[in-house]
UniProtKB/TrEMBL annotation:
Domain Protein kinase span(s) in chain numbering: 115-443
Family per record: Belongs to the protein kinase superfamily. ADCK protein kinase family.
Ribonucleoprotein among keywords: no
EC number(s) recorded for this UniProt protein: 2.7.-.-
PROSITE patterns hit by this protein: PROTEIN_KINASE_DOM
Top enzyme category: transferase
Entry annotated with the keyword Flavoprotein: no
Superkingdom of this protein's organism: Bacteria
Organism expressing this protein natively: Amycolatopsis carbonis
Keywords: ATP-binding, Kinase, Nucleotide-binding, Transferase
UniProt protein name: AarF/ABC1/UbiB kinase family protein
Amino acid sequence: MTDSADRESAMPRRGAARTAKLASIPIGIAGRAVGGWGKRLAGQSAEQVSATLSAKAAEQLFEVLGTLKGGAMKFGQALSVFEAAVPDDMAKPYREALTKLQSAAPPMSAQQTRRVLAQQLGRSWEGRFTHFDDVPAASASIGQVHRATWHDGREVAVKVQYPGADEALRSDLRQLQRFSRLFQAFVPGTDVKPLMAELADRMDEELDYLNEADNQRAFVKAFEGDPAFLIPRVVASAPKVVVTEWVTGTPLSKVIAGGDQETRDLAGRLLMEFHYSSPARAHLLHSDPHPGNFMVTDDGRLCVLDFGGVAKLPNGIPRHLGEMTRLALDGESDDLMRLLRENGFVRTDSDLAADEVLAYLAPFTEPLATPTFHFTRRWMQRQAGRVGDTRGSDFRVGRSLNLPPEYLMIHRVTAGSTGILCQLDAEVPARGIVERWQPGFAR
C-alpha cells in the first residue's frame, strides 16, 4: 500500500471526496421522498411511507457520518443522545444506526498507527510497552484505542489520533453547517445550529491530547477514593497520543440494549451524580455525554472515559441556574421571569409573558417534583413533541428565549445526559442529587 493510500484509508480528508459524501445525504433523502410519493399513489398510508423514509434516511445519514469519522462522526455522536426523542414506531433503525456510530468506525492500518506512535512517543516507543495489540479495541470520532501492556506490567489503553483529523474536522464542520436545516428533523425540539457552533469552538481543544490528559488528571484527583466512580489514570501523553490505565466494564450502550432494571437504575443514578457533582468537585464539566464514554464496572462503579471535551467552571455551576429551576418547579412565574431577564435568557425587547415562560419551562422540572423519577422514552418524546410542535405556543416561546453562549455547554450536557437516562429507562433519585450539588436549588 502506498503512503497516500494508507493515509486515505484512515481518514478521508480530501475536501472534494468528503464534501461529496456529505452531499449524498440530502440528495439521497430527496430521492427517497420522490419514491415515497409514488408509494402514496399506490395506496400506502402517509404514516407507512413516513416511517419507511425515516428509517432509510437514518441508515444513510449515520452510515455516511460513521465512515467519515472526524467532525461528521462527532456530530452524529452528539445527536445520538437524542435518540430517545424519536417516536417509537421509527426508533429501531435510528437506535441501531446510532449504537454503531457511538463505537464503530473503519480502523487505520497497523503501519499507520505505528508511524504516529513513533512521531509522538519517539522512535524507541516499542520499548515502553511489553505488548502492543495492532488491532484496535475501539474507535472514536478523531482517534482509535489499542490495548497494550506498559513496561511496568499495567494494562493500558493507547488512544492514537487519526492523521489529518484536524483538516477533516474543520472540513466536516463547514459542510455540516450547510445541512443544519436537514439535520433538524432528527432532533425535534432542539436547535442544531448552536450545537454545531459549539462543536466548532471546542474543536482545537479536543484535537490536543495533552489538554485531554490534563483534564483527565484533574478528574482523577477530584474523584480519588470515591467508591462510586472510576476515572482511569493517565500513564503518558503527547499531542496526538494518550496512554491511560485499561478498565473493563459493561458499556452503557449494552446496558441500554439489554441491562436489567437494577443495573439501569444504578447507571442512571451514577451518571446524574457525576455530571452534577463535577463542577463542585473538579470545577470542570465532562461535556461529551454519549453512552460510548461510560461503563459500569463489575464492582458497580461508573467508569468515565474521554476527557477531550471539558468545560471549565472555576466557580462551579452558576447559582442562579439552581434558583431558576426551583422557581419553575414551584410555579413562581414573576420571580422566574425576573431572573431570566437579568441573566440574558429573555431579550430586553421581548414581549413574552411570565406565565407563558413558566408553562414552557415547568414540564422540564417534572423529574424534581418527587423523590424519584422514572426517565422514559415516552416522557422525552412528549417534551420533544411539545416544544417542537410548530402549531403550539411552546414552540413560539422556545424560539423567543435566548441561550447565552456561556451556558451552551451546561445546556448540552444536561440535555444529553437526560437523553441517556431516558434510553436507560432508569428510575433515579434526581431531586436529592440536584439538592446536594446544584447551588441555589435547595430552599
